[in-house]
């Protein structure tokens, strides 16, 4: 799987990543870091505990990280949940959460596969 | 060729909680900069504390646990040494309110996520250049609060001026006393306003042909064309008056001047001498200005020697206790005595108490010495009691400084009891200056001593800022009239005041000792007014223990 194929599969914008990081090698270096990012886990946990502040911060971080890695779909979804949480609309955020989770799971799975293939 | 100062890699601090964002930023920056990373604001502040001189710029995320970006900005804004470091906010693009809030809170610029390396490098680069073109160099060269030269730059510019000029220059020093205390009592803004006001007043007084520097938190120096001593005294007075209109009007300033500096001597050593002179001002009652001249130099070295010798002098019993009789007028014999300290140093010879006591008071050593005198007195009293020799009550002095000792009364009781001295044989002399220092502690301690059975004598009454209220508040048994009264008895006004003091004392059941009586006329006058005791050369000078024993036997 090429980096571009990986991005396509998860709804990312490879061209955008390449234009910012200047080389495929750098994109390859940063992308697998996403596997260790704790923000989605924190978001999940905070939502379960109905802790809006922590959930907001975690969603905000997830949004920033995915945007930085040009993971456009996940970035857009986490941006939406961030705004819901910023407005402290906890119920609506919880309703929206599965969409974020679906995108996150695909992203995680694909990048894991991509990383394994690289090694 | 590249300028060395520009070729050095600048250091950038990245404050961001997310590892990936941090790594991406660091990797973007690492070619051009040394990057320090902090995972939250608190860690960021810690790193800043130890690296603030090295850090050229901060990239700051807003949403962070522990200490968020706003709190971080606030802390930086309140810390003068940090607030000149530019801060770029890293933010998500669609939260404009956040960005405005950050810019209002002292951030310089922002970059949006996703990071665009070109944009980031350009913003970081131009921000650092901007700062170095203005504030960075300024920060090193100029004091951040008052904008006068910082220490090193003052030396550089002063030396340059001295080398290239035919003019004769002086160094003037202005020290803000107890600045640490002012800083703890007043807000930083108020203290800064005071400093700025002082500098402004100095600039007005000295004019543009002078160089100004802040060499420590509390000292300002001026290199200025030579002036007469009177000019400096006038300027000192002007500056003190100026302070009265500033944010902390009761701030105390001391001044010194080192006249006619030699251009071959490093400015730092001239400043050190001016500092020594300014430090000396506090020993001199009512003075605010000191000049570093040969007379001062001799005195300064002598004082340093005295302070250096004092502890060994105590161990080696160089301090001797003398007794000056208090002549009881009705009984026509000694009714008491005052224990006085005398010091003869093997090298320096006789040193006057007037010289060493203020020094010891300032260093705190006086308390040890006062305890020593009390102990020696009690030991002598014991000896006289045991041998059946005539014995009179002896008074020992307690310095105002002694009242900072947490167990002063207990220590005195302990010393008296160690030698089983009946407390009525030991009198305690205190001065009004102790009363003004820390009134409540003083009153409590004197009360304790009085309750323990010691007679309390109020020393130097009538000297300095005497107040009659002290007679009402203190349980005083004996009032010691300052020698000023003995010397001014011929003035009808003084006489009238004296008569009233005697009348008040009588009503309050307080006995009076007249000090400094040197003639029969003075003694007779005091006798006519109803004085109980006379202390002075007319009856006896201070005597050694052996001489005093002989005196009592007469």
Outline of the structure:
The complex is a heterodimer of chains A (119) and B (554). By secondary structure, chain A is mainly α.
Tertiary shape of chain B = elongated
Biggest β-sheet of chain A: count, sense, barrel? none
How many domains, in number, for the residues of chain B? 3
Q: How many beta-strand segments of chain B?
A: 20
Q: In CATH, what is the homologous superfamily of the largest domain in chain B? A: EAL domain
- Strand runs of chain A, count: 0
Q: What class, by secondary structure content of chain B?
A: alpha/beta
What's the pLDDT, averaged over the residues of chain B?
88
Average the pLDDT over all residues of chain A and give the rounded result: 90
CATH architecture of the largest domain in chain B: Alpha-Beta Barrel
Largest interface: A-B, 27 and 20 residues
The helicity of chain B comes to 40-55%
- The helix-strand sequence of chain A is HHHHHHH
Highest CATH level, the class of chain A: Mainly Alpha
Globally, the shape of chain A reads elongated
Reported CATH architecture of chain A: Up-down Bundle
Task: Give the C-level CATH assignment of the largest domain in chain B.
Answer: Alpha Beta
